[in-house]
Design a protein that fits this description.
Layout lengths: L5 E10 L5 E11 L5 E5 L7 H5 L9 E3 L4 E5 L1 E7 L14 H14 L4 H17 L2 E7 L4 H14 L2 E5 L1 E2 L15 H17 L7 E3 L2 E3 L2 E7 L7 H17 L7 E6 L3 H10 L7 H7 L7 E5 L5 H10 L2 E4 L1 H6 L7 H6 L3 E4 L11 H24 L6 H4 L18 H8 L1 H6 L17 E5 L21 H18 L1
Parallel strand pairs: 1-4, 1-5, 6-7, 7-8, 8-12, 9-12, 12-13, 13-14, 14-15, 15-16
Antiparallel strand pairs: 1-2, 2-3, 5-17, 10-11
Cofactor: Zn(2+)
Protein name: Amidohydrolase-related domain-containing protein
GO molecular function: guanine deaminase activity; zinc ion binding
């Protein structure tokens, strides 16, 4: 390559909405030295490459030409995962959430007090996440400040776009009192130290910008673990911390916040009992404490009520759908179609180690299955109506909404969107990443469904259109993407 320009010519698939994508068989993509897509031209025939490139001083010999069966897509965005739970992958599936936390998760997370252990684990976490095509991730660390700093250092060194959060857990728990912070003051102090540490890192990339300030790849994210782990005082102070950041650093990205909500029925019941002033709404608990806002990422949202949906929509917070984890821990099936019709922002998350797979492809596959099971249940209710269930009716009052997604199967363009641009929207990054377009960061994957990749799941001999028409190439490209999402 001349200088640090990189030029690709070949197939591109990029999302544009929940129902549509662009499938471009002959696309020219020029990535500049800053890591941004400088220009992108659709439908360029091969014989016109020199004509297109020469006026800008590029040579055709510098172009990376993709074969049919190879294509570029945006990198996957994991909106909810626990870096400290990777060592627990595949353990504890016999439990439900609260028992699993006590018996499997918290004992392992305690080990991250050991800096050497943390460094060893986190290098593998980031490397494997990148190897599985996740270019952006929202990470929960443990409650330990040093471990959280190490996680940020490793993400920055390896070049993953990442939001790093130290868990805030200051509420005493009689069942497992050893894994708790010393005090609310210590929790907030350590959170401030982590923010300062991350802000001091020399970013590996300065290509993304908000206003006039560079937006580094690695950024802090406030992380009240969930309402049962935090005191009211702690959540209030985290809300004030987010407000303070916006006042002191108005040209920088707003402070993101991540937490869990309505993952498990027993968890929901315990939260409502603990916060009686929330009027029976889990989301209202977070709103009362100033941590439910546009930059908040809410993990799971399996059992939201009508009141919850109201508050999430009012604050324009985002939902991270974690179907693999929801299946594995018997948490339930989140009605994502309902949330999409309500206009909520939705992305996908692996939720390692509740989720047993690092790959976002597994999440896409399970999101598809989850929606199909809800669709099947809808058909069964339609053909075999039951007496009205007042608790369920709270979630089905849709008279003022269209039914584009409720009680429907999530189609491939929708699943692709949720894993990319939907996740970017949840993370307030959609102007920078999540799709491939001029001016955006080139956070991308080069995918091949050809036999010579050695992948066992895809029948590579079906990867080519064996025709020269643009329509046939586009149809084959769309087919190849679907096969990649479900077979790779």
């Amino acid at each position: 390559m001349s200088g640090s320009i990189t030029i690709f010519y070949g197939a591109v698939v990029t999302p544009i909405s929940l129902k549509h994508w662009k499938a471009l068989p002959n696309c020219l993509v020029v990535v500049g030295p800053t890591g941004n897509i400088e220009w992108m031209i659709d439908d360029v025939e091969h014989h016109r490459l020199e004509e297109m490139l020469s006026p800008k001083g590029y040579l055709t010999s510098e172009v990376i030409v993709l074969e049919e069966g190879e294509f570029l897509i945006p990198g996957f965005i994991d909106t909810h995962t626990h870096a400290v739970q990777f060592p627990n992958l595949g353990k504890g599936g016999q439990y439900e959430l609260l028992e699993w936390l006590l018996k499997v998760v918290f004992p392992k997370e305690e080990q991250f007090e050991d800096r050497h252990f943390a460094k060893e684990v986190f290098h593998e976490v980031i490397r494997r996440s990148l190897d599985f095509g996740t270019t952006t991730s929202c990470y929960y660390s443990s409650l330990h400040l040093d471990a959280s700093k190490i996680l940020a250092d490793v993400a920055n060194k390896l070049g993953q776009r990442a939001f790093i959060g130290k868990c805030n857990m200051d509420r005493e728990n009689d069942k497992y009192s050893s894994y708790v912070e010393e005090s609310t003051e210590c929790s907030i102090r350590d959170t401030r130290h982590l923010i300062s540490h991350i802000r001091s890192l020399v970013p590996v990339s300065k290509h993304a910008s908000i206003g006039t300030m560079p937006e580094p790849l690695v950024q802090p994210i406030l992380t009240p673990r969930f309402a049962l782990a935090c005191t009211s005082d702690c959540m209030n102070k985290l809300g004030h911390l987010a407000d303070e950041h916006e006042r002191v650093h108005p040209l920088e990205p707003p402070m993101r916040i991540q937490t869990h909500i309505a993952e498990n029925p027993k968890e929901y019941e315990d939260v409502i009992n603990l916060y009686p002033k929330a009027d029976g709404s889990y989301a209202k608990v977070y709103e009362m404490h100033g941590v439910l806002r546009e930059t908040t990422v809410l993990g799971h949202a399996v059992h939201l009520t009508k009141k919850d949906i109201y508050w999430i929509k009012k604050k324009n917070a985002g939902i991270s759908h974690c179907p693999t984890s929801n299946f594995y821990l018997t948490s339930g099936i989140a009605p994502i179609g309902k949330y999409l019709d309500e206009g909520l922002k939705v992305g996908l998350g692996t939720d390692v180690g509740g989720g047993y797979a690092i790959s976002m492809l597994n999440v896409i596959q399970n999101a598809s299955i989850a929606s199909k099971m809800l669709y099947r249940q809808h058909l069964d209710r339609k053909h075999h109506p039951q007496p009205a269930d007042t608790s369920a009716s709270e979630l089905t009052d849709n008279h003022h909404h269209t039914h584009c997604f409720t009680d429907c199967r999530l189609e491939v363009p929708t699943l692709f969107y949720l894993a990319t641009l939907g996740g970017a929207d949840v993370c307030n990054l959609s102007k920078r990443t999540g799709s491939l377009a001029e001016g955006k960061s080139f956070d991308a994957l080069l995918v091949s469904v050809l036999d010579d990749t050695g992948a066992l799941g895809v029948w590579g001999k079906e990867a080519k259109s064996h025709g020269h028409s643009h329509t046939k190439k586009r149809e084959k490209l769309e087919e190849n993407l679907e096969r990649f999402l479900f077979l790779w």
